[in-house]
């Protein structure tokens, strides 16, 4: 676990980047630091691996003050991913990934074998191993950056706006990939972004920081959306909080009815459309096992009759859910009536963090 | 072309203590000695200043001073101070000539490395010296080699001045040729110096191929 205890960073010119920050970063989960420029999110991240040293207060890693650990040794035990990937241009991809294993004195063969494993893990063609960074696309370079950070199997991963320099489509796929990796690896990840949507998508816990380096609220994404601590957080979260919150509710509990006869299906049981006087009309589908309530609602809104089609993994119709069925579930997940409407103390503790998941392997 | 034929066709020019092979060897000796000393001073200094950021003023001063100093004047001055007969009066002006391009390019090369890359190197857990030698130097290598190449070419061309103070080298053909109005020797000597400079240039192109990582060569 990483803890911040009254951490302040003040620069010589008097600028305060981080102001009396105290928080606990849960082990085995993704904690996102989010906020506008100048909120000290990157500074906070960089104080963990001592790229910046705090002016006062302390940061502990598994109980040990990071100031007591030699910086290079500390950093070799913490994965670090930065915005432009920061790959070494003069080294082949495989050797970039093996950077930390080499530093730790692994022999070349073992380090390269490990690097190849990681390339596969992050979804890269092993054929890219012999290339140089300039021969890869931005998205591929960023994957290599993640592989490099994971090479020595560190329990902690620091990611400083790693996906902000790639286009939206690549960014979304990198985000999905990170979530997939995390479900396997259960690392303690601190992720910095200025993009609240990214924060809400990736974070088990989201720490919202305000300009001047103060913690505005720390909570799970669903809680954040329904119960923003104050106007700043509410404004930062932006519009459609109610709808976006539905992404965190599983569609599993939606009450399904048998498919009505006016839903045409093909020979495999997949939906073709709603039969109407003018032919087949559009339909929307969701998979109750894997999709959220937001997807189910979206599917209902896409059908002329307001009925969402539930399908299984093979795309076969399992039933339908009308707006009434969706509404029942919406009512169940209505925000608490007595929730703090305005102001309130800054949140503490992670809402939906998964707590003490063990990270894989020993720290390097 | 006649003069060239006269010069290179004369068998007497190809042997003896004042033949082309001996003069060429002398020329290379001065040049190599001056170049090596200059490189040994300027490369480490450039790396250090580029890496630490301290002493950048020195680089600027050195670069400007070198442009202002007349090589021949310096040569005469050192001869007056040190006396004729040793090789030192030739080496000093050549070293002074060669240091600035190496120093400036090495410094600029190291300083110009992308800040993100430097950040990543430290963030991975490289120590200061490892950052310098495993990241900054390989990435700055094309510029460092450029500095070395410029210096080497300048030294090789300028080493002709050794003949002014009674030393050997290819300059002998030019100086003696002028004195005796044997223009074939002047031109022959000049052609040899030019060819040598081209050979140096070519050698550095080859060196670049061998020591610079393809990943870096493509980026620049």
Automatic annotation (TrEMBL), chain A:
<protein>
    <submittedName>
        <fullName>Proline/glycine betaine ABC transporter ATP-binding protein</fullName>
    </submittedName>
</protein>
<dbReference type="InterPro" id="IPR003593">
    <property type="entry name" value="AAA+_ATPase"/>
</dbReference>
<dbReference type="InterPro" id="IPR003439">
    <property type="entry name" value="ABC_transporter-like_ATP-bd"/>
</dbReference>
<keyword id="KW-0067">ATP-binding</keyword>
<keyword id="KW-0813">Transport</keyword>
<keyword id="KW-0547">Nucleotide-binding</keyword>
<feature type="region of interest" description="Disordered">
    <location>
        <begin position="331"/>
        <end position="364"/>
    </location>
</feature>
<feature type="domain" description="ABC transporter">
    <location>
        <begin position="2"/>
        <end position="236"/>
    </location>
</feature>
<dbReference type="InterPro" id="IPR027417">
    <property type="entry name" value="P-loop_NTPase"/>
</dbReference>
<dbReference type="GO" id="GO:0005524">
    <property type="term" value="F:ATP binding"/>
</dbReference>
<feature type="compositionally biased region" description="Low complexity">
    <location>
        <begin position="355"/>
        <end position="364"/>
    </location>
</feature>
<dbReference type="Pfam" id="PF00005">
    <property type="entry name" value="ABC_tran"/>
</dbReference>
<comment type="similarity">
    <text>Belongs to the ABC transporter superfamily.</text>
</comment>
<feature type="compositionally biased region" description="Gly residues">
    <location>
        <begin position="341"/>
        <end position="354"/>
    </location>
</feature>
<dbReference type="InterPro" id="IPR017871">
    <property type="entry name" value="ABC_transporter-like_CS"/>
</dbReference>
UniProtKB/TrEMBL annotation, chain B:
<feature type="transmembrane region" description="Helical">
    <location>
        <begin position="131"/>
        <end position="150"/>
    </location>
</feature>
<feature type="transmembrane region" description="Helical">
    <location>
        <begin position="30"/>
        <end position="49"/>
    </location>
</feature>
<keyword id="KW-0813">Transport</keyword>
<keyword id="KW-1133">Transmembrane helix</keyword>
<keyword id="KW-0472">Membrane</keyword>
<dbReference type="InterPro" id="IPR000515">
    <property type="entry name" value="MetI-like"/>
</dbReference>
<dbReference type="Pfam" id="PF00528">
    <property type="entry name" value="BPD_transp_1"/>
</dbReference>
<protein>
    <submittedName>
        <fullName>Glycine/betaine ABC transporter permease</fullName>
    </submittedName>
</protein>
<feature type="domain" description="ABC transmembrane type-1">
    <location>
        <begin position="24"/>
        <end position="204"/>
    </location>
</feature>
<feature type="transmembrane region" description="Helical">
    <location>
        <begin position="156"/>
        <end position="175"/>
    </location>
</feature>
<feature type="transmembrane region" description="Helical">
    <location>
        <begin position="187"/>
        <end position="207"/>
    </location>
</feature>
<comment type="similarity">
    <text>Belongs to the binding-protein-dependent transport system permease family.</text>
</comment>
<dbReference type="InterPro" id="IPR051204">
    <property type="entry name" value="ABC_transp_perm/SBD"/>
</dbReference>
<keyword id="KW-0812">Transmembrane</keyword>
<dbReference type="InterPro" id="IPR035906">
    <property type="entry name" value="MetI-like_sf"/>
</dbReference>
